[in-house]
Amino acid sequence: MAAGFTEQPLPTWRRAVLKVGSSLLTTPDGALTGRHADALAAFVAASRRAGREVVIVSSGAVAAGRGLATPERGAGLTGRQALAALGQTRLIALWQTFFDAPVAQVLLTHDDLRNRRRYLNARSTLRELLAIGAIPVINENDTVAVDELKLGDNDNLAAIVAALVDADVLFIASDIAGLYTANPRTDPDAAPVMEVAEVTPEHLASAGGAGTVAGTGGMRTKLDAAIKAAAAGIETVLFDGRDAACLGRLADGALVGTRLRAPRSRLAARKYWLRHAPSAGRVTVDPGAVDALRGRGASLLPGGVVDAVGDFARGDVVEILAGGEPFARGIAQYGATDVRRIARRHTRDIEAVLGYSYGETIVHRDDLVVLPDAARLP
User: Fold this and answer.
1) Signal peptide span per the entry (predicted)?
2) 142 is known to lie in a ligand binding site
3) Statement to judge: residues 84 and 125 lie in one domain
4) Which of 56, 230, 250, 360 could be 262's S-S partner, Cβ–Cβ 3.0 to 4.6 Å?
């Protein structure tokens, strides 16, 4: 077993985000290598064969670009941006060599995740990529990001992406076996931490900074990511991405590393937020839509919408009413004006009526919660 860690079960999951750090994709001198990516890709492939979905958040573009430029280049912000542009294509090409399925490059910026409309666009794109069987490989768009608006590190980005795609678990592959009570590289008395119920200030205080030249994060950023993921009800697991045997066990549902739990399940956290978030308007639906949403767990389509009340925008939380009573709540994929224009229409008519389309749903089933007392509705 890895450095004192013993085997424990993984949380149950259907969709996951796998974060892979630069240290696992580069040689000590910074060149791109597939040495450890091979076993990581085998884990992804095995998970996909089991019917699960995996989104990869991969560092390594700047390091890969550094191998293509002269040593004196790459200093400062513009230098790093140029290295990212050079290296990103090589990084995606590396991942594609391990899969028969298509690999899709997705580059995100701070603005993509801050702006609600762009956030939803990114979410819709990732959902579609997963639906068609592609493997999204995500990185921050370092080519255009500026220091003031950078997401900071890919551990943080991975936690945001996990919430974005409604992941059940966040896998963080590192060059260390998991969380310890102290830095195991400098403290011989450091003991492995198998499980964390909740990350505390004491955990953060024991975490260090970046461990390698290629990396931008350390255990502290991983714990910060786990805190963000836990807020969305997503568990985080830390493990040694260099250990092929560890990755083999991971594919079989066993973790040799640290499991950082979330206070409540992903579904419970999301339902709680949807139930209590301020609503910006109301959507009235017909009995057929009530049956589809309440009985079959379906999405709300335009054909079942009777009317929209209020001035809500795309991305706002709305109440869904039947017979004048709210029975569900969800995130609107269209603004109020658009909903009124496409109400009672077939999904194939959306683009013809509006001149554009954000998809066929008014409220996607992943963004919808039926209220506890909805069973009283006829």
Assistant:
1) none
2) yes
3) yes
4) 230
**Burial (Cβ within 10 Å: 0-12, 13-18, ≥19) of residue 260:** buried
Instruction: Confirm or deny that 241 is annotated as ligand binding.
Output: no
Are 176 and 308 in a shared domain?
no
29 known ligand binder: no
Residues 20-74 have pLDDT tens digits of: 988 899 887 777 888 899 999 999 999 999 999 999 999 888 888 877 766 555 5
241 and 264 part of one domain: yes
221 annotated as a binding-site residue: yes
357 is in an annotated binding site: no
Domain holding 150: CATH number?
3.40.1160.10
**58 and 172, same structural domain?**
yes
* CATH code for the domain in which residue 371 is found: 2.30.130.10
